[in-house]
Design brief:
By secondary structure, this protein is an alpha+beta fold. It contains 26 helices and 20 strands. It has 6 domains: 15-208, Hypothetical protein af1432; 210-364, Beta Polymerase, domain 2 (2-Layer Sandwich); 405-480, Ubiquitin-like (UB roll); 486-562, no CATH class; 579-652, no CATH class; 661-736, Alpha-Beta Plaits (2-Layer Sandwich), CATH 3.30.70.260. α9 runs antiparallel to α10 (193-207). It is flat, with a radius of gyration of 35 Å.
């Protein structure tokens, strides 16, 4: 912004507004440089002028929201000048009162970029469905390419919740639900614990007002007694620590209203039976080489005065948690029979627990969010809490969100998550297979597009269909999702099978009408040889599609029957004696299996279910083209011995990697509680594989299970088997043929 920009006076007629304005600028002057203060003041003037005709539900100027949110951004979150300016101008840009290019020219491209992300999030209207809450959280994160966007949004929502009393009831309930299910959990992941707790408490105030008021009243009634109890509890501990010369800091933490309410609901107990309303934390200041010794010394002091519960002892100092968390936790009982949780750690351990990857949300767990957004948020959280100068956040943030997903809406507001790069056709198949089969195009945000159009975050997509539409082979080049690819292949194969059946019936009828002394197999063999096609399936398809002149076919078969054109025998095409070699054969006779469906018609054997990476061979059937079998298929030996002339060497094309195959795994293990759940969690959550069917039971005291999973190849199956074998209680894991 030009240094010669004249800073106008700001006129806000109401006295509360003047106080708000003065308090805000007073804080800004004590926090930012003179030049930054000038720019923030200009942004404030723009906001006041642009929003002067708008009021909030309580009749106060709408710009109050912008000013109070900017104060939270600066004071409670600790962001810098560009973040404050963007917060003040958020509603100005969202309502179209000032275009983004103009904002970029006046305040810089960074502010315009932040506002673009905020506008995207503001356009999201989450449906009150817990099932879709995770998707909406990930969508919000995906819009936050600049990390400051999501932090400003947290401040914006907190200010709304603080003013929620003036909103209409329906609006109040919707905002409270969104805050509890979306924003408070994002704040938790970001380490904004104060904001998270306040959001949860305010949400509960409007969603469950009676229970909220009950807990507030009970806390108020017991506050004096609780403070007196804490003082009495810690007095002998503090006296002993001072006598030992141990430097320490003592904290007491009261549970939030929402946490108390959750415990009451979960344990089905009244307020009086929630015993862990608070915890005592003793934080020691000592050199690193004395940490363990001093922590155990403090533990000894505590247990000298109070009796510990051995079942509630947690030693994460000798063996820290895998995420780095270190602390001693114990629960002790007073002579009066009251239980108190005590946490003992050093200042370094406390900083790691509060600011590092071992923060509270990490070790206690918050549901939702995909791997990409989890990683992104963890990195953002670390930067926010360890960056001294707030202006350097974006510079230090070098981990872009990479969830490989795109989030789009149906016309009714349902949110769907698809693979990045998905098209309108992918979206149609994701909704329903019948919708995909008849898709002719779509409308994205009201704009007509082809079925090839790629989707972007936040698009509202409507599918256009036609009863006459049928999938074509070219559709495989349009879609990227495995569901769409698998369905299109199935439809194409079904169509080709029907077409071949019609061609077969037509050829049988013609041979009979022509009174030729040939069997159908002899006729197909002669035509395959003449037209240089590999299978009878292809011959039938050519006849059905009327691509062979029937007069020419009659002449060829007549010559073959009379001996003038002898019907040739199919030359034996044996697989190599070493079954494993068939998959690596590079000769001209080797059948190459890929996903194009253009070079050869084939199907995968239902007896052995071959998948990418398995050693395979092909078997020429009389009526159904080529069937692909594993070399260790139960039927392999019989097929080679009885029909050696129909056996083809085959291999997978090396570039084939996007297919979706079904593999069945059988598991035997000890009858342990939760073992089946650990197996399914391993496959679906850790390995991210789709489970198509599963069954578990107990036979003769042993757990027996079977899973059908969707994989890209044999290597994935080997990985699943290896991982399951490592679970405690597993006796045997193997892949089955059918």
């Amino acid at each position: 912004m030009s240094a010669s920009y004249e800073i106008p006076e700001i006129y806000i007629p109401l006295s509360p507004a003047m106080n708000l304005y003065r308090d805000f600028l007073t804080y800004i002057r004590t926090t930012f440089s003179a030049s930054s203060c000038d720019e923030i003041r200009c942004a404030l003037h723009t906001a006041v002028r642009s929003l002067s005709d708008l009021k909030r539900y309580d009749g106060t100027p709408f710009v109050f929201h912008s000013i109070q949110t900017a104060r939270i951004v600066a004071e409670e979150i600790g962001l810098g000048r560009n973040s404050v300016i963007s917060t003040l101008l958020h509603d100005v840009a969202r309502l179209g009162r000032m275009p983004l290019p103009e904002i970029a020219a006046a305040y810089g491209p960074e502010c315009a970029g932040i506002l673009r992300g905020l506008n995207h999030i503001s356009a999201v209207d989450p449906k009150t469905s817990t099932l879709q809450a995770d998707n909406f959280r990930e969508l919000i994160v995906s819009y936050s390419t600049d990390p400051r966007v999501i932090l400003i949004k947290m401040a914006d929502r907190l200010e709304v919740m603080r003013a929620l009393e003036s909103f209409p009831e329906l609006k109040r309930n919707k905002k409270a639900w969104e805050t509890l299910n979306l924003y408070s959990q994002l704040a938790h992941k970001l380490g904004l614990y104060g904001i998270k707790s306040e959001m949860e408490d305010l949400s509960l105030k409007y969603l469950e007002p009676r229970e909220y008021d009950h807990i507030v009243r009970k806390l108020s009634e017991s506050d004096a007694a609780r403070q007196a109890f804490i003082a009495t509890f810690v007095r002998p501990i503090e006296d002993r620590l001072r006598a030992l010369g141990i430097r320490y800091k003592l904290k007491s933490r009261t549970k939030s209203i929402y946490s108390i309410w959750r415990k009451m609901r979960k344990q089905r107990v009244p307020f009086e039976e929630v015993y862990d309303l608070f915890a005592i934390r003793i934080i020691i200041d000592c050199p690193p080489d004395q940490e363990k010794m001093q922590c155990w010394s403090v533990y000894s002091v505590v247990t000298d005065f109070y009796t510990p519960n051995p079942d509630r002892m947690r030693d994460w100092i000798s063996i820290p948690k895998s995420n780095g968390y270190e602390s001693l936790h114990t629960t002790v009982v007073t002579p009066q029979g009251r239980w108190v949780e005590v946490q003992i750690r050093t200042r370094r351990m406390d900083e790691v627990a509060e600011r590092g990857v071992a923060a509270h949300w990490r070790y206690k767990g918050v549901g939702g969010g995909g791997f990409g957004s989890e990683q992104w948020l963890a990195r953002l959280r670390e930067i926010v809490e360890t960056t001294a100068a707030a202006e350097t956040i974006e510079e230090r943030f070098d981990l872009a969100l990479s969830s490989n997903e795109v989030f789009v809406f149906t016309p009714t507001g349902d949110l769907r998550k698809l693979r990045e790069g998905s098209t309108v056709l992918d979206f149609a198949f994701d909704i329903h297979s019948n919708l995909g089969m008849t898709c002719t195009g779509g409308r994205i945000n009201g704009r007509n597009v082809s079925l090839r159009e790629r989707l972007r975050n936040g698009d509202v997509v409507e599918i256009v269909t036609s009863k006459t539409q049928r999938p074509r082979a070219g559709w495989l080049d349009i879609v990227v999702t495995s569901k769409a690819k698998a369905k299109i292949k199935q439809i194409l194969r079904d169509d080709q099978a029907r077409s071949a059946q019609l061609g077969k019936e037509e050829l049988e009828r013609k041979v009979k009408n022509w009174k030729l002394p040939l069997t159908i197999e002899e006729a197909v063999t002669a035509l395959s040889k003449y037209y240089k096609v590999k299978t009878g399936f292809e011959v039938y398809a050519l006849i059905s599609e009327q691509r062979l002149p029937m007069g020419e076919v009659k002449e060829l078969l007549t010559d073959a029957a009379s001996g003038r054109l002898p019907a040739p025998e199919i030359q034996p095409r044996r697989a190599k004696s070493d079954p494993s070699a068939s998959g690596d054969d590079r000769s001209g006779d080797c059948l190459v299996i890929d996903e194009t469906l253009r070079d050869v018609e084939y199907k995968l054997g239902g007896c052995c279910h071959p998948i990418l990476g398995d050693p395979i061979f092909g078997f020429v059937t009389v009526h159904s083209g080529i069937t692909i079998h594993r070399t260790d298929c139960p039927n392999a030996k019989r097929l080679r011995e009885e029909y050696p002339y129909r056996v083809l060497s085959a291999r997978w094309r090396e570039t084939t990697s996007n297919g979706a195959f079904l593999a069945t795994i059988r598991v035997t293990g000890d009858d342990l509680p939760g073992l089946a759940g650990r197996i399914t969690d391993l496959v679906s959550q850790e390995l991210k594989l789709n489970i198509r069917s599963l069954s578990f039971g107990v036979q003769r005291g042993m757990m027996q299970g079977q899973l059908s999973i969707e994989v890209k190849g044999a290597q994935a199956v080997d990985m699943v088997i290896h991982k399951i074998k490592r679970l405690k209680g597993i006796v045997r894991v193997f892949r089955v043929n059918s």
